Amino acid sequence: MRKAIFLLTFLGIMSSAFSGGIDTKSDSLRKDALLVYMEANDYIRKEIPYVNYVRDIKDASVYVLSTRQRTGAGGTEFTYFLVGQNENNGMYDTLSFISAPDATYDEIRLQEVNTLKLGLMRYIAKTPLAKYIQISFSEPISQTVSSDKWDSWVFKGQLSGWFNGQQTYTSNNLYGSFSANRVTEEWKINLRARYSYGIERFVIDEETIRSNTNSKSLSGLVVKSISDHWSYGGSAYIGSSIYNNLDRSIALMPGIEYDIFPYSQSTRKQLRILYSVGYNYFNYIDTTVYFKTEEGHAQHSINVAYAVVQKWGTIDLSSEYSNYLYDWSKNNISLYTNFSLRVLKGLQLNFSGGASILHDQLGLAKTGATTEEILLQKKELATQFQYWGSFGVSYTFGSIYNNVVNPRFGNQFGWGH
């Protein structure tokens, strides 16, 4: 038994020594690799193994910021901002790609990796690892581009349902939508139809309680570009909602918007001011607390939105004020915020939330709400404010390197970011 243990120990030592001899060059290359700070999942680390992924931005030779924006075709534009520092100070690059509306997760992550490889090459070229890089072009390229027979229009239909239940409870829901969008440099057109229906059943002390919800709507947005800072357009809406006591609601709100920063910089920073003025008509299911069965009023609103992406984190703020022109006391003030801030090395704070001051609930039903409707939140209730929020803090310390991927015992394929 002792001889067997000795033999196994000896083989282990020899194996380690042998492996160490083989990995001398590999270890040397790893030390010379580019230091990169970015939000990298396991797939990216596997596909781009010839850089060092560091945990703190101050240690990096280049850091990568990423943003995403929905496109008019229903896809997503991924943009990467590469900023050199330390020995690469003064180097900047911006790369992007647009995923197709029906692209699979695998297709998107392949595009993501290829785009990051292209962006990092300029920085890797300054390291000793550059001589091991080979660049190839995989596809033939044509001399012309075929015309778009759809003229930039994209259509999408969706139908979904979900249900669950037990002995004393059942819930059934149906949701459908159809959209038509056209986005070009000059125009943005979004058209959408929605329908939702839900029914819940509760059995309490042999008494059965049922609760229904039903809403449908048609909405449209048309925007025309004037310049790199100005645009004008408007929105229209028609719909109904049991929750909001609306048998029919119609709104038309033209407006004009100014962005302090050029729209060409919208993926990195925005400071938009939108003013809208229009008309709202309401036809109610039940008589309201103001003894109305229908009414129509002019309304205006101003919205200010600020968003920025920097190496210290991201900030997304928006606020809106609106009121009915016949009575300025019938107003609404809302604020939304989303922060992700890197405070110190390894310390990050996250917060998102929103709040509203409500003085414009014209459609509250005079009959009020039953106990069941209150508990199930099936009918709009009188309130002068509402709010929500979430927050988190994280702190990471230890080795500055973050290169190794080990999927054993449950690593989930590096999905997500």
Describe this protein's structure.
- This protein has two domains: 31-132 and 400-417; 153-395, Porin (Beta Barrel), CATH 2.40.160.
- Helices cover 15% and strands 51% of the residues.
- The chain contains five helices and 17 strands.
- The protein has helices at 2-22, 24-32, 42-47, 105-124, 371-376; strands at residues 34-37, 51-53, 62-70, 76-84, 92-99, 153-166, 169-183, 187-204, 207-225, 230-241, 246-259, 269-284, 294-310, 313-324, 327-344, 347-358, 385-395.
- Strand 1, helix 3 and strand 2 form a beta-alpha-beta unit.
- The protein is elongated, with a radius of gyration of 29 Å.
- Mean pLDDT is 84; it is low at 4-11, 13-22 and 413-417.
